[in-house]
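Subject: Pyrroline-5-carboxylate reductase

B.,
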Amino acid sequence: MAKLSQDTRIALIGGGKMGEAIMGGWIASDEAPASVLSAANFIVANPGLPRREYLERTYGVACVEQATDIDAADIVVLAVKPQVMMGMLETIANEARFGECLFVSIAAGMTTERLLGALPPGAHLVRTMPNTPLLVGAGATTVCGSSSASVEDVELVRALFSCLGAAFVIEEADMDATGAISGSGPAYVAAMIEALTAAGAREGLSADLAERLAVQTVYGTAELIRKTGQTPEQTRLAVCSPGGSTLAALAAMGEAGLSRAYEAGVAAAVQRSKELGAC
Ligand SMILES: NC(=O)C1=CN([C@@H]2O[C@H](COP(=O)(O)OP(=O)(O)OC[C@H]3O[C@@H](n4cnc5c(N)ncnc54)[C@H](O)[C@@H]3O)[C@@H](O)[C@H]2O)C=CC1
Ligand SMILES: O=C(O)[C@@H]1CCC=N1
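Prediction pasted inline below.
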């Protein structure tokens, strides 16, 4: 599957948060290769009726209850939770119509070896780890091939996700670590915004103002680093006046274990991904 066309059939198995974000982004994208796609290219398998009705109403896509109801597909996006993946794959493992498909997994932790063992023989598989900011075209997705994927398969998937932000081809051995940085990262950043907001409120600011300042500061700092090409270290040092308030803050945060907290958090996410991969 090297190229997309207006006739490419894309099946999404799991029409939840990530599935919706990916499909909605591809339908809306004006960027190649997703620019050829419209609602007519998609079919979504999702067990919950209210969710199917919502997706039909919002995007005009066809929806079915389960994977076995999908009549044909060229690309199949596996967007169910790791805990239900193997059970779902069992239902389509012997369906010849999925034999030549390009499968794209977004599941945390599930290795290509494990998935390929459960997919129909002949299936091509590419594994990815996207993140929620792709909903606003600012995602970060890592992509790796499998023993059944061609260079063209990997490039097509990378190009499709780059329509939703940045996409990087990496080695599979690094997938869980990237999941712990960018996959889970939006939660860490949001938690930091919540913590800054609470700290600002303790200093007497209204929670609304503190939150708006924190959000704009996260956005502005990321843009500053991206647009100027300066390093995060340079960005940090530029704010730290000798003997000033920022150095006092960073010293107190260091003493409270900020770096250790990130190290421990990322290690815990990697460990949990490995456990999910064995579900
Ligand atoms: N939420 C996130 O930030 C990220 C999630 N992921 C991965 O994305 C995948 C989906 O996660 P979310 O969208 O967050 O979960 P979700 O719970 O929002 O969506 C999963 C959907 O799958 C449906 N489903 C359950 N069993 C099914 C079956 N047998 N056939 C078809 N559909 C079925 C559920 O009804 C639900 O709508 C997971 O594997 C997760 O590891 C990857 C990167 C980031
Ligand atoms: O928490 C999770 O398991 C998924 C994977 C990366 C982000 N969310």
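The first strand starts at residue 10 and ends at 13.

T.
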